């Protein structure tokens, strides 16, 4: 019986995985079993860290906004600012507010002062104060 030459499909699959892990060190880029394990591990880490990256950026934006707001007005905080923004139905997300806080603090001060003044006026007119 003559020898049967294997097809190219398995080899093509392995080379595709090898291309993915070509930058890994040692056996992680050379041995087929460890290559597949490391590819799975890398994809799991990438999926997990996409979510944590979003969380970390949101935390950073909140910290920046809070720092700039508390710098000017002592009794005013981030949570009060966001609450008043929602009450006035202003659609400014945290990313934009953090960019304003870094690039142009006076603009953020003006926004917060407008909100504070309007909230105070609405409290006086409703008789809360």
TrEMBL record:
Entry annotated with the keyword Plastid: yes
GO biological process: ribosomal large subunit assembly; translation
Keywords from the named record: Chloroplast, Plastid, Ribonucleoprotein, Ribosomal protein, RNA-binding, rRNA-binding
Pfam families noted in UniProt: Ribosomal_L20 (PF00453)
Stretch forming the signal peptide: none
UniProt cross-references to PROSITE patterns, sorted A to Z: RIBOSOMAL_L20
Subcellular location(s) per record: Plastid, Chloroplast
NCBIfam families for the chain: rplT_bact
Protein name listed in UniProt: Large ribosomal subunit protein bL20c
Source organism of the structure: Deppea grandiflora
């Amino acid at each position: 019986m003559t020898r049967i030459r294997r097809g190219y499909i398995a080899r093509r699959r392995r080379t595709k995985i090898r291309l993915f892990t070509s930058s890994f060190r040692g056996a992680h880029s050379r041995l087929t079993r460890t290559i597949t394990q490391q590819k799975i591990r890398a994809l799991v880490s990438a999926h997990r860290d996409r979510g944590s990256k979003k969380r970390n950026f949101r935390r950073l934006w909140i910290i920046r906004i809070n720092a700039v707001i508390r710098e000017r007005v002592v009794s005013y905080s981030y949570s009060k600012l966001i609450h008043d923004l929602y009450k006035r139905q202003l659609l400014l997300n945290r990313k934009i507010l953090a960019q304003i806080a870094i690039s142009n603090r006076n603009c953020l001060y003006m926004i917060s002062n407008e909100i504070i003044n309007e909230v105070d006026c609405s409290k006086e007119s409703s008789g809360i104060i």
